[in-house]
Amino acid sequence: MVTAGESTPRRPRRGQGRSVRQHILDATSELLAERSFNEFSVADILTRANVARGTFYFHFGSKHEVLAELVRRTVARGHEAAHPSLGHEAEGQRRNTIRYGVAESARLWREHPHILRAIVENWRSDPGLAELWLEQMSTFTATTEARLEADAAAGVLRDDIPDTKALATALTWLGERLHYLAAIDVAPLNDEEQLVDVLTHIWMSTLYARD
Q: What is the rounded distance in angstroms from the CA atom of residue 111 to the CA atom of residue 130?
C-alpha cells in the first residue's frame, strides 16, 4: 500500500511481466479512466507506463495510435455480440434476438466506457482515428444491411422501408449516439434497462409491422 508522501509504484520495465507495449496500452487506458483524451500527453503516458520516450515511439507514432489500438481490441472482443442479430423468427423471437444484441452493446459500453467515449469524442480530430471509427461503424452497418435484405427477401420486413443501406446506417449511428449519451450519464438513457428497452422498441417498430 502507498502511504502519504510516497510515489505511485512504477510499472516493471521491459522484460519484466507484460510487454512494454501492453504497459503503454494499460497506462493509457488508466489515464482515460481519470481524464479526457485531450487532458493528457505522451509525457503522461511515459510516466504512468515507466517507459522512455524512444521506447514509446518504437511502438506507437502518437497517443492517437495508442487509442486506436485500444479501440480495435475493445471492439473486437464484443463485435459479434454487440450487434443485434436479425433472423427470420416469429415476432417474439425477433424481439428477444434484437434485445439481446442491444443489451450486449450496452454491456460493452458499460465495461469500456472510457475507451469508447474517447473514440466517439475524438475520431474527427485525427485522420487515423477517423478512418478506424468509420471502418468499425461501416462493418456494423454492412452486417445490418445484409440481414435487412435477407429479411426483406423473406417477406418479414415492413414493406415501406425506403432504402436498406440508409436505414442500416441510421440504426448503427443512432445506437452509437445513445450509448455514448448513456456513458456520459445523460438521463434517462443512463438507466441501462431503459436504454435497452428503447433501442429494442426502435428496431422493432422501424423494421417490422405488427402482426
A: 23
pTM, rounded to two decimals: 0.84
pLDDT at 48: 97
- Model confidence pLDDT, tens digit, residues 158-185: 989 989 999 999 999 999 999 999 999 9
In SS3 terms, the chain reads as: CCCCCCCCCCCCCCCCCCCHHHHHHHHHHHHHHHCCHHHCCHHHHHHHHCCCHHHHHHHCCCHHHHHHHHHHHHHHHHCCCCCCCCCCCCHHHHHHHHHHHHHHHHHHHHHCHHHHHHHHHHHHHCHHHHHHHHHHHHHHHHHHHHHHHHHHHCCCCCCCCCCHHHHHHHHHHHHHHHHHHHHCCCCCCCCHHHHHHHHHHHHHHHHCCCC
CB 51 within 8 A of CB 93: no
At how many degrees (to 10) do helices 113-122 and 127-153 cross?
Answer: 100
Q: Could you tell me the three cell numbers for 208?
A: 417490422
